[in-house]
């Protein structure tokens, strides 16, 4: 073959390769809009979701973005791509992204001792308290279980919540087990504010929202409700879906307070899929993104986690830094869900395929975002579709049955025809715990009432010295009084915490 022939052959090959790549890229961007519409409509109907918004990003382009259903069952206004939803714990990745930015600037490190940034932070175990790092906070491995009632509906400030958790005993040895813990993410967010000489909210606004053009997004339910286009939270009671009140969760902000639309989240997803770059500007180093998406702590695939990560598609589950990492039918997923009163959310990245999916809904306590996201991913990756709605709902019913069995078992254990050991007036008093603060028991006529945090619940006698608080938020709890050797009412166990009775002055 002469030189001219070789040149012509190479040129032809290059042209063919260019055509192939062009066709491949075009094919990659082509999606079946009608099929995705069908998946969404089917999911909204199956889960009885009032409204939902969905986003698909592929190869740095928004290829699908729509609203379905209504923002409020009472007004009937339709959901749009600009409708704000509370995105719950998907906020956690914003917190770790903020940390990664500060790490890029040398203002903190993942393995900094927490006290370098939050001097008043401590853990209940002295050795763990000395060694705990920022990385420990955002990988749920401090040894603390949830203790969400220290922030949920509580009157306490962020600093006071962080101080209080320091008196709670660890439920597992330090760094040995994954235990989801919101207050640790609150602490990480406070560290962001300290390192930035600002506040967590200001840093996220200026360094994440503004550069990404997330103009509608905010970090408070107060601001969300001021928006002209926001979804309303809903709850399903028996078979009816009803509007429910917004809950102010500003005191736990860095763990779950962001409100956003799918349009705004499209920029967030693109930035992550582009390893920290957004429209030619680097916001986070590639190493920072890699660290966030790297497994840090093994998560046992059991209990409630099986609702979100189905066993027949997932063989391993880990937690990175603000993200779950799992395999899914041969693909690596980086994802996180969000749950807060009346809202559910799910953000899923398939990094190798440059694919991102977001599903936001305004209905409390369903697995609709996960089931829908898996169905969308199956379609987008050309996988054989599975009926994730029925499959995940079946698993959810099993989990709910286990919870009901535990409650009914407790009810069945009730000893009939018993009475309290002492007259009701003997239980009246003030009870205290270093972490959980003051609880008061009062007597009105023939009824005891418990006041703690923002809760005020009548106590129904269960049996012996055990009472049940009449508050649906405390439906699984009991109040158990104990007597000392002289027959006097001593301590009170509530929320698994042993409150000590204070002596009258």
CATH superfamily of the largest domain: DD-peptidase/beta-lactamase superfamily
Radius of gyration: 26 Å
> What coarse outline follows from CA principal-axis ratios?
globular
Low-confidence region ranges: 11-28
Structure description:
This protein is α+β, with helices and mostly antiparallel strands and 505 residues long. The protein has 2 domains: 32-107 and 196-404, 3-Layer(aba) Sandwich (Beta-lactamase); 424-501, Lipocalin, CATH 2.40.128.600. Helix content is 33%, strand content 23%. It is built from 15 helices and 22 strands. It has an 8-stranded antiparallel sheet, with helices on both faces. An 8-stranded antiparallel barrel has the order 15-16-17-18-19-20-21-22. Helix 3 (92-104) runs parallel beside helix 7. The longest helix is centred in the first third of the chain and has 27 residues, at 3-29. It is globular and about 75 Å long. The chain starts with a helix and ends with a strand. The relative contact order is 0.12. The model is unreliable at 11-28 (pLDDT under 50).
Ordered list of secondary-structure elements with their pairings:
Layout: H1 3-29, H2 33-46, E1 51-58, E2 61-69, E3 85-86, H3 92-104, H4 126-131, H5 134-137, H6 158-165, H7 182-195, H8 200-212, H9 221-224, E4 234-237, E5 240-243, H10 253-256, E6 259-260, H11 262-273, E7 277-278, E8 281-282, H12 286-292, E9 297-298, H13 305-308, E10 317-319, E11 324-328, E12 331-340, E13 343-350, E14 355-361, H14 368-380, H15 388-412, E15 429-433, E16 437-444, E17 447-452, E18 455-463, E19 466-469, E20 479-483, E21 489-494, E22 497-501
Antiparallel strand pairs: 1-2, 1-14, 3-6, 4-5, 7-8, 9-10, 10-11, 11-12, 12-13, 13-14, 15-16, 15-22, 16-17, 17-18, 18-19, 19-20, 20-21, 21-22
Helix pairs in contact: 2-14, 3-7, 3-8, 6-7, 7-8, 14-15
């Amino acid at each position: 073959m002469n030189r001219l022939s070789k040149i012509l052959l190479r040129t032809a090959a290059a042209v063919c390769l260019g055509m192939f790549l062009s066709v491949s890229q075009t094919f990659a961007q082509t999606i079946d809009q009608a099929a995705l519409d069908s998946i969404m409509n089917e999911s909204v109907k199956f889960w009885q979701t009032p409204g939902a918004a969905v986003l698909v990003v592929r190869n740095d382009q928004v290829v699908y973005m729509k609203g379905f259903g209504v923002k409020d069952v009472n007004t009937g206004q339709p959901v749009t791509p600009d409708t704000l939803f509370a995105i719950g714990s998907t906020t956690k990745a914003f917190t770790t992204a903020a940390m990664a930015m500060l790490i890029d600037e040398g203002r903190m490190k993942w393995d900094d001792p927490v006290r370098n940034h939050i001097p008043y932070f401590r853990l209940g175990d002295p050795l763990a308290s000395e060694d705990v790092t920022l990385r420990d906070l955002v990988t749920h491995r401090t040894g603390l279980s949830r203790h969400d009632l220290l922030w949920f509906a509580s009157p306490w400030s962020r600093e006071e919540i962080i101080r209080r958790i320091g008196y709670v005993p660890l439920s597992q040895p330090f760094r040995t087990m994954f235990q989801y813990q919101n207050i640790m993410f609150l602490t990480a967010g406070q560290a962001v504010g300290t390192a930035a000489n600002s506040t967590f909210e200001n840093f996220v606004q200026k360094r994440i929202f503004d550069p990404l053009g997330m103009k509608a997004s905010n970090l408070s339910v107060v601001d969300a409700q001021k928006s002209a286009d926001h979804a309303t939270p809903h709850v399903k009671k028996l078979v009816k879906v009803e509007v429910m009140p917004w809950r102010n969760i500003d005191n736990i902000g860095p763990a779950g307070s962001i409100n956003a639309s799918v349009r705004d989240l499209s920029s967030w997803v693109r930035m992550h899929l582009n390893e920290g770059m957004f429209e030619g500007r680097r916001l986070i180093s590639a190493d920072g993104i890699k660290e966030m998406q790297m497994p840090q702590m093994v998560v046992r695939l059991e209990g409630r986690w099986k609702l979100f990560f189905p066993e027949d598609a997932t063989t391993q589950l880990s937690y990175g830094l603000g993200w779950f990492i799992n395999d899914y039918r041969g693909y690596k997923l980086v994802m996180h869900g969000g749950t807060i009163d009346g809202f559910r959310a799910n953000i899923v990245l398939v990094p190798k395929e440059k694919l991102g999916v977001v599903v936001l809904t305004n209905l409390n306590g369903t697995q609709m975002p996960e089931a829908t996201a898996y169905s969308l991913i199956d379609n987008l990756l050309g996988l054989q579709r599975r009926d994730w709605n029925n499959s995940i709902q079946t698993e959810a019913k099993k989990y709910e049955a286990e919870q009901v069995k535990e409650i009914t078992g407790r009810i069945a254990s009730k000893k009939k025809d018993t009475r309290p050991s002492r007259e009701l007036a003997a239980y009246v008093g003030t009870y205290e715990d270093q972490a959980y603060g003051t609880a008061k028991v009062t007597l009105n006529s023939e009824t005891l009432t418990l006041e703690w945090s923002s809760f005020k619940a009548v106590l129904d006698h269960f049996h012996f010295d055990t009472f049940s608080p009449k508050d649906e938020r405390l439906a699984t709890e009991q109040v158990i009084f104990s007597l000392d050797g002289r027959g006097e009412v001593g301590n009170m166990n509530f929320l698994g915490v042993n409150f000590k009775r204070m002596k009258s002055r």
